[in-house]
Amino acid sequence: RDFMSASVVDGDRDLDAGLRPSSLGDFIGQPRVREQLELVLHAARARGRTPDHILLSGPPGLGKTSLAMIIASEMGAAIRITSGPALERAGDLAAMLSNLVEGDVLFIDEIHRIARPAEEMLYLAMEDFRVDVVVGKGPGATSIPLEVAPFTLVGATTRSGALTGPLRDRFGFTAHMEFYETDELVRVLQRSAGILGIPIDADAATEVAGRSRGTPRIANRLLRRVRDFAEVRGNGHVDLAAARAALKVYDVDDLGLDRLDRAVLGALVRGFGGGPVGVSTLAVAVGEEPATVEEVCEPFLVRAGMIARTPRGRVATAGAWHHLGLQPPAGAID
Ligand code: ADP
């Protein structure tokens, strides 16, 4: 029953583990999502039922996995973790579903990347807590119905628009996660600095928070880089000067844009005269996967007011031209 092996683990996630908030009270920011979730979970507990299936939608690093774990722990339930890309064959999903115990939370990260046959199996499981397993091939093939214990599916996606209608409709509640405000990221940083034992001044924390792309995972990552700098070049204490110098070394600009963000903006402005241009063309220009540009870079560039989405493609705003030190053409949108 070790489903953790199927989970997506990258370096950052390992590092994140110790910094994850463990209860809703511990979870900073996202006041709307927290209130909505509190109601869903409270009502389910009062009824003695498993909560409705929950979809968490938003860019990477905003706390979707953390929330899934919190949902399980608030319900006193176990969590099984997998991801859309890991569920290539319906059989993988059937094995997972048939091992669930009543009340379990099944977390499927990147659920928009689930393969079609597994997705279709999921419909039935979500709705009727049952799956049909097809055994054999050709005319002799039979379908064996299997019961699934009542469970709560928590899906996470960076692209809720890529979910098929029938899948989206089977979630009782969708939480839209927003980028964090600077003051919320300051609290994330202070909490993490406390856990990691990093002495950091308030103005240094504000500086790092303001350059974290509205994203707790990035805030925590920059905190570690700033700590490295303060330990190697200073006495380990993170003050404003150390924070600024470290962020410069790591190529994080004053808006928090990283190399790829700037490459995308640069391609849009210099390569395509500010657009409009399609996202896949932009991705080719910077040598990245379209999904990365669309799901990782673009949401923040839009929120930062650098890029506008139009029906004909992406357009650079006047702010983008200025940010790159260029004069926007007449008619550039604000
Ligand atoms: P996602 O699944 O959306 O990519 P994660 O849940 O893995 O994001 O969050 C990444 C890391 O950011 C977590 O390990 C945690 O350290 C931190 N984090 C995310 N959201 C919060 C929050 N609201 N409060 C405190 N830390 C957070």
Automatic annotation (TrEMBL):
<feature type="domain" description="AAA+ ATPase">
    <location>
        <begin position="50"/>
        <end position="181"/>
    </location>
</feature>
<dbReference type="InterPro" id="IPR008824">
    <property type="entry name" value="RuvB-like_N"/>
</dbReference>
<dbReference type="GO" id="GO:0005524">
    <property type="term" value="F:ATP binding"/>
</dbReference>
<feature type="binding site">
    <location>
        <position position="65"/>
    </location>
    <ligand>
        <name>ATP</name>
    </ligand>
</feature>
<feature type="binding site">
    <location>
        <position position="61"/>
    </location>
    <ligand>
        <name>ATP</name>
    </ligand>
</feature>
<dbReference type="GO" id="GO:0006281">
    <property type="term" value="P:DNA repair"/>
</dbReference>
<feature type="binding site">
    <location>
        <position position="20"/>
    </location>
    <ligand>
        <name>ATP</name>
    </ligand>
</feature>
<keyword id="KW-0347">Helicase</keyword>
<feature type="binding site">
    <location>
        <position position="64"/>
    </location>
    <ligand>
        <name>ATP</name>
    </ligand>
</feature>
<feature type="binding site">
    <location>
        <position position="217"/>
    </location>
    <ligand>
        <name>ATP</name>
    </ligand>
</feature>
<dbReference type="InterPro" id="IPR004605">
    <property type="entry name" value="DNA_helicase_Holl-junc_RuvB"/>
</dbReference>
<dbReference type="Pfam" id="PF05491">
    <property type="entry name" value="WHD_RuvB"/>
</dbReference>
<comment type="subunit">
    <text>Homohexamer. Forms an RuvA(8)-RuvB(12)-Holliday junction (HJ) complex. HJ DNA is sandwiched between 2 RuvA tetramers; dsDNA enters through RuvA and exits via RuvB. An RuvB hexamer assembles on each DNA strand where it exits the tetramer. Each RuvB hexamer is contacted by two RuvA subunits (via domain III) on 2 adjacent RuvB subunits; this complex drives branch migration. In the full resolvosome a probable DNA-RuvA(4)-RuvB(12)-RuvC(2) complex forms which resolves the HJ.</text>
</comment>
<keyword id="KW-0547">Nucleotide-binding</keyword>
<dbReference type="GO" id="GO:0000400">
    <property type="term" value="F:four-way junction DNA binding"/>
</dbReference>
<protein>
    <recommendedName>
        <fullName>Holliday junction branch migration complex subunit RuvB</fullName>
        <ecNumber>3.6.4.-</ecNumber>
    </recommendedName>
</protein>
<feature type="region of interest" description="Head domain (RuvB-H)">
    <location>
        <begin position="254"/>
        <end position="334"/>
    </location>
</feature>
<dbReference type="Pfam" id="PF05496">
    <property type="entry name" value="RuvB_N"/>
</dbReference>
<keyword id="KW-0227">DNA damage</keyword>
<dbReference type="GO" id="GO:0005737">
    <property type="term" value="C:cytoplasm"/>
</dbReference>
<dbReference type="GO" id="GO:0006310">
    <property type="term" value="P:DNA recombination"/>
</dbReference>
<feature type="binding site">
    <location>
        <position position="65"/>
    </location>
    <ligand>
        <name>Mg(2+)</name>
    </ligand>
</feature>
<dbReference type="Pfam" id="PF17864">
    <property type="entry name" value="AAA_lid_4"/>
</dbReference>
<feature type="binding site">
    <location>
        <position position="170"/>
    </location>
    <ligand>
        <name>ATP</name>
    </ligand>
</feature>
<dbReference type="GO" id="GO:0048476">
    <property type="term" value="C:Holliday junction resolvase complex"/>
</dbReference>
<dbReference type="InterPro" id="IPR036388">
    <property type="entry name" value="WH-like_DNA-bd_sf"/>
</dbReference>
<dbReference type="InterPro" id="IPR036390">
    <property type="entry name" value="WH_DNA-bd_sf"/>
</dbReference>
<dbReference type="InterPro" id="IPR003593">
    <property type="entry name" value="AAA+_ATPase"/>
</dbReference>
<feature type="binding site">
    <location>
        <position position="66"/>
    </location>
    <ligand>
        <name>ATP</name>
    </ligand>
</feature>
<keyword id="KW-0238">DNA-binding</keyword>
<comment type="similarity">
    <text>Belongs to the RuvB family.</text>
</comment>
<keyword id="KW-0233">DNA recombination</keyword>
<keyword id="KW-0234">DNA repair</keyword>
<dbReference type="InterPro" id="IPR041445">
    <property type="entry name" value="AAA_lid_4"/>
</dbReference>
<dbReference type="GO" id="GO:0016887">
    <property type="term" value="F:ATP hydrolysis activity"/>
</dbReference>
<feature type="binding site">
    <location>
        <position position="180"/>
    </location>
    <ligand>
        <name>ATP</name>
    </ligand>
</feature>
<comment type="function">
    <text>The RuvA-RuvB-RuvC complex processes Holliday junction (HJ) DNA during genetic recombination and DNA repair, while the RuvA-RuvB complex plays an important role in the rescue of blocked DNA replication forks via replication fork reversal (RFR). RuvA specifically binds to HJ cruciform DNA, conferring on it an open structure. The RuvB hexamer acts as an ATP-dependent pump, pulling dsDNA into and through the RuvAB complex. RuvB forms 2 homohexamers on either side of HJ DNA bound by 1 or 2 RuvA tetramers; 4 subunits per hexamer contact DNA at a time.</text>
</comment>
<feature type="binding site">
    <location>
        <position position="19"/>
    </location>
    <ligand>
        <name>ATP</name>
    </ligand>
</feature>
<keyword id="KW-0378">Hydrolase</keyword>
<dbReference type="InterPro" id="IPR008823">
    <property type="entry name" value="RuvB_wg_C"/>
</dbReference>
<dbReference type="InterPro" id="IPR027417">
    <property type="entry name" value="P-loop_NTPase"/>
</dbReference>
<feature type="binding site">
    <location>
        <position position="314"/>
    </location>
    <ligand>
        <name>DNA</name>
    </ligand>
</feature>
